[in-house]
Structures are given as structure tokens and as C-alpha cells.
Specification:
Length: 204
């Protein structure tokens, strides 16, 4: 069983100056739980190379991904339709923990595996039409600490934050409408990182 690490989460402070809400809760898992979870997910998740569409060209990423749901459904992402896998027992437990801390519900989980700092994710918004509009996205980070950046679509203002091992970040309200986010590449990072984003998808 996962135990909650710290009850005094820093949940009130919005990291964005305007046009959205990003809350960083810090570490919500103990070091031991976070490390055990990381190792377990590395072994048990059905990791696949992702395919992204860049200027009409399909590119296979080095980063790996997997999509799990509370039920099996088709979803469209980067212009490609795929089918979710059923949440494993471990993912169900993590979902429960994230729902408890964030006081919201989710029905899907996208996992990304970055083998080291040479892999990242470019600026984008998570505003696919399958997603619940203005729904909260909860992001749990495990493994190597990485910088995460937000950039406002109009003012271009940038906000950087460090995502720690076992930490939770929430992106709420109009964040996806006005801001993009990215996981920048970094030569300094030599360890892998797993990120889980819990989302609410409209099931057809
Ligand atoms: O790896 C991360 O922290 C972010 C991943 C992300 O933005 C996404 O999956 O949409
Ligand atoms: Fe994203």
C-alpha cells in the first residue's frame, strides 16, 4: 500500500501569473514508495515508441509511452487513433492516491518514459477534443528530476519548475487554452524519468 508522504502539501499557490492555474504539490509519495513504483512501472508497463505527426510527417520517438484507462476505449492523439489498455492494479492504486490528493476524478492515464535528458517533449497544449473541456490534468513524476516549462501563447512569458521524484503537479481550468508546456531536453540528466498524466476523457 502507498502511504501519503506529507499532509502539508503546498496546494494553494498558483504558479501561473494569469490565464490558468498550475498547482505544485511537491512530493506526495515517500522516497521508498516512489522508487519502488518507478521500478515496478519500468518492468510491467507495455511501453511503446510513440508516433508524432510533425508537419505532416510521421516520426517515431525514442521516448516511450503507454495509455491506460478505467475501461478499454479508442482515443485520438497526434492524429492517430489507438486503443487504451485496462489500468493495472498498481496504476489503480496510483490513480486512487492522485484522486485523493487532488480531490478530482480521472478515467485515463498516459505514461511517458524518457530514458535520459536527450529525450523530452516539445511545447504543446493538452487540448485534444476527446478530453473534458477545462478538465484538470494531474501529472505524477518518478525518477530523474527534470525541468518543466510553461509558455504563454500570446505574451510568451515563461515559467519554469523542477519536477521532483514522487511529486504531483496539477494543470487546471484554462491553463491549456492560454499556455503551452514542454519537457526540455537536458545534457545534464543521465537517468530515466517516468511521467504519468491522469486525465478525464469523454468516452464514446
Ligand atoms: O513528461 C511530462 O512531465 C509531461 C508530459 C506531457 O506533457 C504530456 O504527456 O502531455
Ligand atoms: Fe502535455
Amino acid at each position: 500500500m502507498l502511504s501519503l508522504f506529507d499532509q502539508n502539501f503546498n496546494q494553494e499557490k498558483n504558479l501561473l501569473p494569469y490565464d490558468g492555474e498550475v498547482l505544485y504539490y511537491g512530493k506526495i509519495l515517500s522516497q521508498a514508495d516512489a522508487t519502488h513504483t518507478f521500478q515496478h512501472l519500468m518492468k510491467t508497463i507495455e511501453w511503446q515508441n510513440d508516433i508524432v505527426n510533425i508537419f505532416g510527417k510521421e516520426i517515431i520517438t525514442k521516448r516511450k509511452m503507454a495509455w491506460y484507462g478505467t475501461s478499454v476505449y479508442d482515443y485520438t492523439y497526434s492524429n492517430i487513433t489507438r486503443r487504451s489498455l485496462l489500468l493495472t492494479k498498481e496504476l489503480q492504486e496510483l490513480l486512487g492516491k492522485v484522486e485523493e490528493v487532488s480531490k478530482e476524478n480521472y478515467n485515463s492515464c498516459l505514461l511517458n518514459l524518457y530514458h535520459d535528458g536527450s529525450e523530452g517533449m516539445g511545447y504543446h497544449s493538452d487540448d485534444e477534443k476527446d478530453m473534458k473541456e477545462f478538465g484538470t490534468i494531474a501529472s505524477l513524476s518518478l525518477g530523474a528530476e527534470r525541468k518543466f516549462s510553461f509558455k504563454h501563447k500570446e505574451s510568451k512569458e515563461r515559467i519554469d519548475i523542477l519536477l521532483e521524484h514522487g511529486s504531483l503537479l496539477l494543470m487546471k481550468g484554462e491553463t491549456q487554452k492560454y499556455w503551452k508546456h514542454a519537457l526540455p531536453k537536458s545534457k545534464k540528466v543521465i537517468y530515466p524519468r517516468i511521467n504519468l498524466t491522469f486525465r478525464s476523457i469523454h468516452l464514446k
